[in-house]
Amino acid sequence: MPDGASEAYPTPDPGLQLIAEGVTELVGFGAAVINIRRGDEFEIVAAYGDETGHTVEGEMTVAEMLGTRFPVSVVTELLEMSLDWGDIKFIPHERNTIGEAEGYWVADTDEDIMKGSQDWHRLDELLAPFYDDAGELVGVLSIDRPTNGRRPGRRQQRILNRFARQARRAVLLTLQREYLEERANNLLEAQSFLREANSQLGFTAVLEATQEAMSRGLDADGLYVQARDGMGGNVWYASPGLRWSADDYAGTGIQSYQSTRLWNEGLHRIINRDILRHTILHDKSPDQRKFAQLGIDFLDAVEADSLLVVPIGVETTALGHLVLLRGAGRPRWTDAEGRLAMEFGRDFGRIVLTSNAYTQERDLAQRLATADKVHSRLIESVAQELHNPLTALTTGIDAIRHEDRGSTTWFQQVGNLISRSDQLVAMVDDLLLFSRFSDPSSRPTLAVVDLTSLLQEIFEQRTYEAEKRGIEVTIDVPNHGVHVLGDRSEIKAAILRLVDNALVYTHRGGHVRLYIVESASEAAISVTDNGVGIPAGEQRQVFHEFYRGTSQAIGGRKGVGLGLSIVDRVAKRHDGRVTLRSEPGTGTRVSMVLPLSNDAASLG
């Protein structure tokens, strides 16, 4: 028992008091008291008799001794002087060197001179020490002043030994009750703390704020928690200071205690080294022996000796489980503690549910806020980008009305109008694609796509534009088909945007190269240029929607800031990825990497 397990008894413990009364009334003694250990002291919790005695503090009746304390060392020293009468130990006065020690009660009597060798002396003492299953001294029955004035004979010794055994059982039950009451009180405190915890902290934050109260409430040396996070995944948490990771935990097999089954059946599980060792030595199933060895390895890793696994849930919904640890030398988990922890699991389940609901609400609010920002940026970007070409179109249309049809100026104005119209069409195409790829219900139409022929097609389509800009474009593709499973129109749109970006940001006289590189499972479609490049600080941001970098566009205008974002989304929709490498003033390489389709059935 920990120090200060309970307050001093204002009234005697009923069960223990009955035993004290039996010793005095039925066996014939003037005083009997029962003590329970409280740390380094014994507390008198039951006292009966009509004797008056004294301590160093003064005169005191047996009844007045109730609730008083004295050092454990008094009892241990007396036991070292005792004669063994079985459960009862007799300390004859000639061996008793303690005398009237601090807190030690001695009956008042003038009979210091004994008439016979079996007469009772006032410093004679009878003690029945009580030890728990671990061998720790936890209580003692003290008996004094036989009514016949003589030391107990064999018959009285046998009866006293019976009372001693009954008293030991009663003391151990009392300690167990106190222990469980303390656990229950601490549990209620922890439950109250949890209920008052700010559920809006989120699941992990609630655990961090309450783990100390939980460990104290359940008398655990540490705890692990696995629970559903409300988003279809799991959240793992361990008490600070424990050597643990989610991977280690999953590998032990502890997870095989399925939370749903435990919750539905209202069960908890107790695991300790003895059970696991017995399984290793005697179980015929190799899988069970392997699981037991994993359990031993896990206990060694976290320096624990026993585990209590408790399901977490609400009503019919299992939400996870709680694993409580105790180290070597600590009491093993009991079913009674497991039942207390089950109630805790129900309360904790409500915390998890509330936290998950808040997390979902918070994430939804964040997504809505992000969507609102994207919407605002979209409107702003579209307004800015449409303003100039629309103004130019309006100005051009107005100007062309005043020019002679077929004149040089007239043809220049028409060319400008066509260029502005093309720019508007490209912007609208980007916006339409972005809208399509942002729709969760939109899925690519999958078919086998030959990247070799697709890249050759794009090369031919952009050759004229490259020649107008004075940029050399080359292509390097395998002499065989390179096949992926995907939506051809989406992949083509993504590659076109890579090529167009390269043309816009490359100087006249520059070079753009299109090529494909294969590996065993992937194909990378790459577009490189020796253009202006992208500053290092912007290379992550260029994939964000509506981000337009600081690099100067050459021979054209920047788009609406969706090009690389569209490429990135197309790659992800095809289980691929995009890589970028760039050096300002040297050039840029962007690659879209897609998984190869080698399925013969697909190719057919």
Automatic annotation (TrEMBL):
Enzyme class at the top of the EC tree: transferase
Organism: Nocardioides luteus
CDD domains named in the record: HATPase (cd00075), HisKA (cd00082)
Cell compartments where the protein resides: Cell membrane
Protein name (Swiss-Prot/TrEMBL): Sensor-like histidine kinase SenX3
Phylogenetic placement of the source organism: Bacteria, Bacillati, Actinomycetota, Actinomycetes, Propionibacteriales
This protein's UniProt keywords: ATP-binding, Kinase, Nucleotide-binding, Phosphoprotein, Transferase, Two-component regulatory system
UniProt keyword annotation of Transmembrane helix present: no
Highest taxon, organism lineage: Bacteria
Phosphoprotein in keyword set: yes
Record domain Histidine kinase: where: 381-598
Main localization (coarse): membrane
EC number: 2.7.13.3
Catalytic activity from the UniProt record: ATP + protein L-histidine = ADP + protein N-phospho-L-histidine
Entries under InterPro entries matching the protein: BphY/WalK/GraS-like, GAF-like_dom_sf, HATPase_C_sf, HATPase_dom, His_kinase_dom, HisK_dim/P_dom, HisK_dim/P_sf, Sig_transdc_His_kin-like_C
